[in-house]
Design a protein that fits this description.
Shape: elongated
Largest sheet: 8 strands, mixed, barrel
Number of strands: 25
Low-confidence stretches: 1-11
Domain EAL: 459-707
Helix content: 40-55%
Mean pLDDT: 83
Domain GGDEF: 321-450
Strand order of the largest sheet: 17-18-20-21-22-23-24-25
InterPro entries: Biofilm_reg_signaling, CHASE4, EAL_dom, EAL_sf, GGDEF_dom, Nucleotide_cyclase, Rev_trsase/Diguanyl_cyclase
Distance between the termini: 171 Å
Pfam family, one: CHASE4
Transmembrane segments: 257-277
Number of helices: 25
Structural class: alpha/beta
Length: 709
């Protein structure tokens, strides 16, 4: 009996052990399966997270590549020197020296192409410092892009294109002046391109953590890829790189230990969790870095425009007092770039950025909005005057850069948040104030006033009326007699523009500068010349003088247009004198000289108007070969102020006499002035004493009366 009980006890224990073992095995298998499922899931997730991160990084790499070439194109296309030099003789040589030669070993682009205003002619085309044919290299896609990019209002047009060598990034933009005061509607186009070379791919790989990045014509199985499309949206290639698969790597490392013990399995789970947490932290850091870059300027480290607007949105809800925005534009920054190069200009931007940030303790943020335009956000009790003085004080002393002493000034526009206005409106108001400050001269600070908007609206309305008046012929020509000093006979007439509206007369001192600013001066000048010549044909014995704006004379098409009008109206060019002011001698002497020479060859004469109120020198009088000099009315008025005025006037006339240049005196209002000028050597007189500006009909009547007498 005892042995039976013992056997039963052993069997019971054995069964219990077996059952426990089986249970343990079942539980172990279940746990292993669950653990394997968890590990597999986490491994796959880690791979997918990294692949998603890598795909975003690839897109960011392409975007950075595009943005970098686009910014380089804008920096070079919106450049006054380029705008003047490219259309001029020698423009091809200038383009080679500034862009073509640089392409040989320049990191930002491999080639530079300048296309003329007709959008087909090649002014300059260099790849790696050597001439090349862009049409052959890029195909028709190049000229399609140039045609679209020739619009000066567009941002740089950047597209990937197929080339003979593979794929390149091509950026194009119209070559235009920095201040938007273009004197033409047809622009040359600057294009830069950068090839997708192995070096470029290596740079993108290092910058964006895309190991093994390469360019392929088709997507590769088992590889990650991002398509590259051309301007039509067609895929022309793929960026391809291997997946890092960090989850799989970790899984393979710990697989041999899973079967060894549950502890190792648990440690593996902890390790995977730690790896996942670490990867999540890394991705969050990348996201935060991308968010930072989206809201900050890469050169200065300050906020950019988007970052500034976002900050102003936050301050609208949280600021204890209304924020005030200051826009600061550097005076003379372009001259620094032109004289010392962009590298020194960049160093100056960084110095100014640091100085502005620390200029006042109540500045809560600083931003860089453009090349040399900054913004400061001020919250606190300090007054606008305090802030403006603090800002201007930064520029009282020159900056020191690499042993160079660089002086720049600043213009300031300020605006305070009034009520619940949007950040964009606040920025617009500050910009309006800055525009006025720059118009007033260097080193000015202006605070926004609603009158600025009202004035802008009035100017816009006046521009529209002026354009309509030119088109409809509402601007009329009146004529003031030019009288011989010796005989008193009328020898010529000066044509003057008059604009009469229902609300009253608009002064030429208002609408002529307006026409120059808004690009209507060429149309106004053509209208006045055509109208004046048409009237003057009825006075065959009189010479005709017509005023010409410096903007007109600097237009390369001006001379041809004048000759065309004279031929069309069959008017003798020898009867025409064009009066120009001294300003054109200072702004663009080369183009002025070309236009003057071309017109003088057909017999047109030139008079230097308003002599004595500017900076014209004896050398300029000789160089430009003026046929007549008109003394400014201020010198004539000075005759009534004493003997000193008469001495200055006689000296001025003696100068002209020595140069064998006839002299016209304008603004004569009394017989005493006329007598002094006649004795001093003036051969022609003009002023209210001789006759006020009259209509063509009144001039005809006056001439008939003189003939009858």
């Amino acid at each position: 009996m005892s042995s039976t009980l013992a056997c039963r006890h052993v069997r019971t224990q054995t069964s219990s052990i077996i059952a426990t073992t089986i249970c343990f095995l079942v539980v172990a298998l279940l746990l292993t399966g669950l653990m394997a499922h968890v590990v597999t899931t986490m491994t796959r997730s880690a791979n997918e997270i990294d692949d998603a991160r890598a795909s975003r990084a690839a897109r960011a790499a392409i975007a950075a590549f595009v943005a970098r070439l686009g910014a380089t194109t804008t920096d070079n296309a919106i450049w006054d020197d380029a705008y003047r030099a490219v259309p001029a003789p020698g423009g091809a040589d200038w383009a080679y020296e500034n862009w073509g030669k640089t392409s040989e070993d320049y990191a930002l682009y491999d080639g530079a192409i300048v296309i003329g205003p007709d959008r087909t002619s090649i002014v300059s085309a260099y790849a790696k410092g050597k001439p090349f044919q862009p049409g052959v290299f890029f195909g028709e896609a190049f000229y399609r892009q140039v045609k679209v990019a020739a619009d000066p209002a567009r941002a740089p047009l950047v597209n990937f294109v197929k080339t003979e060598n593979g794929i390149a990034l091509l950026a194009s933009q119209a070559i235009q002046p920095f201040d938007d005061a273009a004197d033409t509607t047809e622009f040359s186009t600057l294009s830069f391109y950068k090839e997708f070379t192995p070096e470029v791919l290596d740079t993108l790989s290092n910058e964006h953590e895309l190991e093994g990045l390469r360019l392929e014509a088709t997507p590769k199985p088992d590889f990650l890829n991002t398509p590259i499309t051309d301007m039509k949206g067609a895929v022309i290639g793929y960026l391809v790189w291997p997946s890092k698969a960090p989850g799989s790597t970790v899984f393979h490392q710990v697989t041999p230990y899973i079967a060894a013990a549950i502890v190792i399995l648990a440690l593996f789970l902890v390790a995977v969790l730690m790896v996942g947490a670490s990867e999540a932290r890394r991705l969050r850091q990348l996201a935060q870095a991308a968010l930072y870059e989206a809201g900050h300027d890469s050169l200065s480290g300050l906020l950019n425009r988007q970052g500034l607007l976002s900050l102003l949105e936050e301050l609208d809800d949280t600021a204890a007092s209304p924020p005030r925005l200051y826009l600061v534009d550097l005076d003379g920054f372009k001259a620094v770039n032109d004289a010392w190069g962009h590298a020194v200009g960049d160093d100056l931007i960084r110095l100014v950025s640091n100085a502005l940030t620390a200029c006042h303790p109540e500045v809560v943020a600083a931003a860089r909005l453009g090349g040399d335009e900054f913004a400061l956000v001020h919250v606190g009790p300090a007054t606008c005057d305090d802030m403006e003085r603090a800002i201007l004080a930064l520029f009282a002393e020159p900056f020191k850069i690499g042993g160079r002493t660089i002086e720049v000034g600043a213009s300031i526009g300020a605006a305070a948040r009034d009520g619940d206005i949007e950040p964009l409106e606040l920025l617009r108001r500050a910009d309006m104030a800055l525009y006025r400050a720059k118009a007033n001269g260097r080193g000015q600070a202006i605070e926004y006033d609603p009158e600025l908007d009202q004035e802008r609206q009035r100017v816009a309305e006046l521009e529209a009326l002026l354009k309509s008046a030119i088109g409809s012929g509402a601007i009329e020509a009146v004529f003031q007699p030019l009288v011989s000093a010796s005989t008193g006979a009328v020898t010529g007439l000066e044509a003057l523009a008059r604009w009469r509206t229902a609300a009253g007369n608009v002064s030429p001192e208002v609408f002529i500068p307006l026409a120059e600013r808004c690009g209507l001066i060429d149309a106004l000048g053509v209208h006045m010349l055509r109208t004046s010549v048409a009237h003057a044909k009825t006075w065959p014995d009189l010479a005709l003088s017509v005023n010409v704006s410096p903007v007109q004379l600097c237009n390369p098409e001006f001379a041809a247009e004048v000759i065309s009008i004279l031929q069309e109206l069959d008017f003798d060019p020898k009867r025409l004198t064009l009066e120009i002011t001294e300003g054109v001698l200072m702004t663009n002497p080369d183009q002025a000289r070309r236009s003057i020479d071309q017109l003088k060859r057909v017999g047109i004469k030139f008079a230097l108007d308003d002599f004595g109120c500017g900076y014209a020198s004896i050398g300029a009088l000789r160089q430009f070969g003026f046929d007549r000099m008109k003394i400014d009315r201020s010198l004539v008025s000075a005759l009534d102020e004493g003997a000193k005025g008469a001495d200055v006037l006689r000296a001025t006339i003696s100068l002209a006499t020595a140069l064998q240049i006839p002299v016209t005196a304008e603004g004569i209002e009394n017989s005493r002035q006329a007598a002094i000028l006649r004795d001093a050597g003036c051969d022609q007189l003009q002023g209210y004493l001789m006759g006020k500006p009259m209509s063509a009909r009144d001039i005809t009547g006056k001439l008939q009366e003189e003939a009858a007498a």
